[in-house]
Design goal:
Layout: H1 7-23, H2 29-38, H3 57-69, H4 76-91, H5 94-106, E1 111-114, E2 130-134, E3 137-148, E4 155-163, E5 170-178, E6 184-188, E7 199-209, E8 214-215, H6 221-257, E9 259-260, E10 263-264, H7 269-297, H8 301-330, H9 342-353, H10 358-369
Parallel strand pairs: 1-4
Antiparallel strand pairs: 2-3, 3-7, 4-5, 5-8, 6-7, 9-10
């Protein structure tokens, strides 16, 4: 894989960074989303035949990282074009592609993603949302929790389970559930986290869906599911790296200007070295993210799964350390609204927790990569 970015990727970074700089930390989500769409950034990973840019997750991760580094990340990029757009582009019917991909690319429609459940946590094998046939239709019943942006999404790609007629076991399947479907209700979760996108608990009470709501092959659900989860991890890494870079840039500016005892505080190694370490950690995380994106875009799903998990882990850790050191560098000012870092203390932890906890990633690496016995 390439170890340096192409000229096209560098140009993309510069252009998105300029967009992010124009909007800044106090950005309006709808306005930024609309402008990013018009410039082709939201659909940069989607096929050209359906209005996208023809690129991949490598390009989309650059967009999210640079917006985050400017202080205006768009969380729904992780969900709408990266997860849902990718799954539909790879496995959807022609009708589903025609209906959704151009609209996801131009930003006129968005799609949320529902997998997490109250009693399943990070264990996708314990999902209890089930779908069963009723004539030509499907009936979907279950609950989801911590689902982002459902109120602004036109539909939600729901992970449910159907019964295998041969074994009787439940297998994962993906369904497009329209926002106004009967029996599909939402409740906003009261979060301490400050974000433009809200979190919701969903209830599906015998939601009737037509046959064409099923995305992909009913018997290949697990493959299709992970085709969406790998981009999710890569994009979460981009989100975290961008946030870490933003916090670090604030701290660097402050350390250059803040003078105590006749010298800028950045001249002291106790300040300079931790900031340098934070920068190194973010750069290393980006390299792993780029590797994961390259493998995924090359079609190597197995290797991409390992790299995507590692990238998400490394980026989450680097982000938390960068934010913590930035706040510490500013001292009391790091907790004021003026500098905008205090809210990142909570936000940075999201990259450690979602969409999969760091402990589950360590479990994955220990038994999938190192060959150690499973602990669960």
């Amino acid at each position: 894989m390439p170890t340096t970015e192409t000229d096209e990727h560098k140009s993309l970074r510069e252009a998105v960074a300029a967009l992010g700089k124009r909007h800044g930390r106090d950005f309006d989500r709808e306005r930024l989303w609309s402008e990013a769409a018009k410039l082709g950034y939201l659909g940069v990973n989607l096929p050209e035949a359906y209005g996208g840019g023809g690129g991949g997750i490598a390009e989309l991760s650059i967009v999210l990282e640079e917006l985050g580094a400017a202080g205006c990340p768009l969380l729904m990029m992780v969900v709408s074009p990266a997860i849902c757009g990718t799954v539909i582009a790879r496995f959807g019917t022609e009708a589903q592609k025609q209906e959704w991909l151009p609209a996801l690319a131009d930003g006129t429609r968005t799609m949320a993603f529902g997998i997490t459940e109250p009693d399943a946590g990070s264990n996708s094998h314990r999902i209890t949302t089930t779908a069963h046939r009723d004539g030509a239709d499907w009936l979907l019943t279950g609950r989801k929790v911590f689902i982002s942006g459902v109120d602004i999404a036109d539909a939600t790609l729901i992970v449910g389970r159907t019964e295998d007629s041969r074994t009787g076991r439940l297998k994962p399947c993906l369904f497009i559930v329209p926002r106004d479907a009967e029996g599909f209700t939402r409740r906003q979760i009261d979060m301490e986290l400050q974000a433009a996108e809200k979190q919701f608990e969903l209830t599906l009470d015998d939601v009737r869906l037509p046959a064409e709501a099923l995305v992909g092959d009913e018997d290949a659900g697990l493959l299709q599911l992970f085709a969406g989860l790998n981009p999710e991890r890569i994009m979460t890494a981009a989100f975290a790296i961008g946030m870490g870079r933003y916090a670090l840039s604030q701290a660097i500016t402050y350390a250059r200007d803040r003078t105590v005892w006749n010298a800028p505080i950045g001249a002291h190694q106790a300040i300079a070295h931790p900031l340098a370490q934070a920068h190194i950690d973010l750069e290393l995380a980006r390299l792993m993210m780029q590797k994961a994106a390259h493998l995924y875009d090359a079609g190597d799903d197995v290797a991409a799964g390992e790299a995507a998990n590692m990238a998400k882990y490394a980026a989450g850790e680097a982000c938390v350390k960068a934010v913590d050191q930035a706040v510490h560098t500013l001292g009391g000012n790091g907790l004021t609204r003026e500098f905008g870092l205090a809210s990142l203390i909570t936000a940075a932890r999201v990259a450690r927790i979602a969409p999969v906890s760091r402990e589950m990633i360590l479990n994955y690496v220990s038994h999938q990569t190192l060959g150690l016995p499973k602990s669960y």
